[in-house]
Amino acid sequence: MRRATEMTAVDDRRVHEAFENLVVPEGFKAELIRGEIVMMAGPDKVHNRIVQFVQDQIPSDRWERLQTQDVAFPHEESEPQPDLVVMKAGADDSPGRLVPAPAVTMLVEVVSKTSVHRDYVEKRSIYAAGGVPVYLIIDPFEAKCLVLTEPTGTGLSADYQNSRTRKFGDRVQLPIVGVDLDTSRFGTLPPLTPAP
Fold first, then answer.
1. What domain range is 79 assigned to?
2. Is position 193 within any domain?
3. How far is 92 from 103, CA to CA, in rounded Å?
4. I want to staple 98 with a disulfide (CB 3.0 to 4.6 A). Which of 26, 66, 72, 92 is the partner?
5. Facing residues of 148 across strands?
6. Whether 137 contacts 145, CB under 8 Å
7. According to the UniProt entry, where is the signal peptide (predicted)?
8. How many other C-beta atoms lie within 10 A of the C-beta of residue 80?
9. Is 162 inside any structural domain?
10. The predicted structure's pLDDT at residue 56
11. Inside any domain, residue 71
12. CATH code of residue 88
């Protein structure tokens, strides 16, 4: 009988193999989050416009800005696909679909109906554990931005030590990236109603 750690390693390889070979239907996207393959519908126009407004304000001469790029996290069974990946120009010139987390300066997620828990909880700890210096959560349902900095810890207990919330219309300072983000053009969506 195989030991539990050997079985876990085999299971992890199987999940990665299944994820690598997954055929995602048009209009959907898939992510690997803590060993679970998560598939969701593609984003709406409000979401995509917000991502574009953010990307347009980050200077391309200093920063590489990649939309929906898979990121690899060491010591994590996760390959999330953030809405926007920001890294210093030249930080990762390797081929392939995965950007290594240590090359990343900022990750941006725009909350959707199905991603609330993942963006605020699961990805927050994954990104902190990976040492991503800045995590920006943009929530069109609440019309607010949450800027998280100073990652600390490992695994499920990892988190950011510093958080600042700003409402849409306010300028949002993005540390390290050196941008005062104009949020006045961010669209909103009707507030989400809690499940009964």
1. 43-182
2. no
3. 6
4. 72
5. 135, 163
6. yes
7. none
8. 26
9. yes
10. 98
11. yes
12. 3.90.1570.10
Closest to 55 (Cα-Cα) out of 34, 16, 86, 98:
86
Task: For residues 163-188, give the mean pLDDT.
Answer: 97
Structurally, the chain folds into a number of domains equal to: 1
Please check whether residue 135 lies inside any domain of the structure: yes
Among candidate residues 26, 24, 127, 19, the one with its CA nearest the CA of residue 71: 127
For residues 147 and 160, give the distance between their C-alpha atoms in angstroms, rounded to a whole number.
Answer: 10
Question: Distance between terminal CA atoms of the chain?
Answer: 45
Q: Which range, 20-24, 36-40, 149-153, is most confident?
A: 149-153
Contact in structure between 89 and 113 (CB atoms under 8 Å): no
Mean local confidence (pLDDT), 2-7: 43
Query: Which amino acid is present at 160?
Result: Y
- The answer to whether 40 touches 27, Cβ cutoff 8 Å, is no
Distance CA 117, CA 38 (A): 13
Q: What is the pLDDT of residue 53?
A: 98
| Three state DSSP letters for the chain | CCCHHHHHHHHHHHHHHHHHCCCCCCCEEEEEECCEEEEEECCCHHHHHHHHHHHHHCCCCCEEEEECCEEECCCCCCECCCCEEEEECCCCCCCCCEEEHHHCCEEEEECCCCCHHHHHHHHHHHHHHCCCCEEEEEECCCCEEEEEEEEECCHHHCEEEEEEEEEECEEEEECCCCEEEECCCCCCCCCCCCCC
